[in-house]
Amino acid sequence: MGHARSKVLIVEDQFLAAEFLRIWVDAYGLEVCGTAKSADRAIELAIEHRPDYVLMDMRLEGDKDGVAAALAIQELMDARFIYCTGSGEPSTIRRINEDHPFEILIKPIAPEDLGRALLRD
To answer: What's the pTM value of the predicted model, to 2 decimals?
Structure first.
């Protein structure tokens, strides 16, 4: 990654949640390269920006969920996926774990947990 700041793609359909993540990603010194509300837009932005990290919500606009988006992106590039989900339900966690996530954060997300996930090696 050299001296360039790590790039983070935010995939979140709720504006305020996306803004919260954007503010904190910036505060931790990483670059937000885009925000998407749908899986299809997330894939487009990932191809365009090749992010190092993807903050991925499970419930998105459209008919694809966060795991579907993540799996599509992973076929194209290496990125670390940090799932940000409002549901700690076993079925949701099982679905996320199909994707071998880098980290799972349950909403409401504490800024320090986000920072720990983004800054760990």
So the answer is: 0.94
Handedness of CA 77, 82, 85, 89 (dihedral sign): positive
Question: How far is CA 35 from its chain centroid?
Answer: 9
Q: DSSP states of the chain as a string? A: -TTSPPEEEEE-SSHHHHHHHHHHHHHTT-EEEEEESBHHHHHHHHHHH--SEEEEESS-BSS--HHHHHHHHHTT---EEEEEES---HHHHHHHHTT--SEEEESSPPHHHHHHHHH--
pLDDT, tens digit (0-9, with 9 covering 90-100), for 35-65: 999 999 999 999 999 999 999 999 999 999 9
